[in-house]
Specification:
316 residues; Rhopdopsin 7-helix transmembrane proteins; globular; sensory transduction; G protein-coupled receptor activity; cell membrane; transmembrane helix; receptor
């Protein structure tokens, strides 16, 4: 971490929710339960998608990567948050802060692009069903996932490095519960207008551009479905796209409120609660959405349970 300058000497203080001491106890329980559910739910989706041959399709290939991203994204934030909510010390070391910033930003940026990739997959499944198998071949799927990861890591190396190089003149109080770029930029003791412009442009590219592609994909899907008068086709399209659209709404609806909102309102508690939604709550809900609303996943669960029972019966 040679890019961390001397202004990072000494631990940072994560102010977080310390101005609401009674609320911290409630938040500790909520974050702990959410984190445990995230671990169990996303791990289950990864294992089910791997173990059931019926789920070896592009959709579940992308879903496996989304679950892995959510799993790592929450893990980069929740343990430190739980430690600060529970104990009297609300600090994080400079190295820990830099690692959290790099990892969480890389995973969050990757998820933005990955959700757009999943929308393209749904477009291919609904609008080009006869060509779906040939269009979404394994090499293309791997390339799309690789593009999502590279864009996330690339954005992080640029934004993270620029942010950590800013002189802070001893400012160590972060008015947030995580080391996030907008909060870290506020610690600078120099003119940060250029950094704010750079952050806004990066937000346009990695938030609004993927969101635009998602909306275009679903616009094409809606047009294709409108031309079909079969009620069964409507239900199939809704079942195919409904889960992903709900996940997109939850994730983009919260993260854009933080990164696109006016700078003057960022330091208020509203920004912290919105960040809590897309970093902790949304990764918890994603597995529930994909399992409760998805017949394929529920069917795979039943097959795995039946297979396990059959193996147990054979042993007896």
């Amino acid at each position: 971490m040679t890019m961390i300058n001397e202004s990072l000497a000494g631990d940072f203080i994560l102010v977080g929710f310390s101005d609401h001491p009674q609320l911290e106890k409630i938040l500790f329980a909520v974050v702990l339960i959410s984190y445990l559910l995230t671990l169990v739910g996303n791990t289950a989706i990864i294992l089910i998608s791997y173990l059931d041959p019926m789920l070896h399709t592009p959709m579940y290939y992308f879903l496996t990567h989304l679950s892995f991203v959510d799993l790592c994204f929450t893990t980069s934030i929740a343990p430190q948050l739980l430690w600060n909510l529970r104990g009297p010390y609300k600090t994080i070391s400079p190295t820990g802060c830099a690692i959290q910033l790099y990892v969480s930003l890389a995973l969050g940026s990757t998820e933005c692009v990955l959700l757009a990739v999943m929308a393209f997959d749904r477009y291919a499944a609904v609008c080009r069903p006869l060509h779906y198998a040939t269009d979404m071949h394994s090499r293309l799927c791997q390339s799309l996932v690789g593009m999502a990861w590279l864009s996330g890591v690339g954005n992080t190396l640029i934004q993270g490095t620029i942010t950590l190089r800013l002189p802070r003149c001893g400012n160590r109080r972060i008015y947030h519960f995580i080391c996030e770029v907008p909060a870290m930029v506020k610690l600078a003791c120099v003119n940060i207008h250029a950094n704010e412009v750079q952050l806004f442009m990066a937000s346009l590219v990695l938030l609004l551009l993927p969101l635009t592609l998602i909306l275009i994909s679903y616009g094409c899907i809606a047009q294709a479905v409108m031309r079909i008068r079969s009620a069964q086709a409507w239900r199939k399209a809704l079942g195919t796209c409904g889960s992903h659209l709900l996940v997109v709404t939850l994730f983009y609806g919260t993260i854009t409120a933080v990164y696109i909102q006016p700078n003057s309102s960022y330091a208020h508690s509203q920004g912290k609660f919105i960040t809590l939604l897309y970093t902790i709550v949304t990764p918890t809900l994603n597995p529930l959405i994909y399992t409760l609303r998805n017949k394929d996943v529920k069917g795979a669960l039943r097959r795995l349970v039946q297979k396990d029972r059959a193996q147990q019966s054979e042993k007896l």
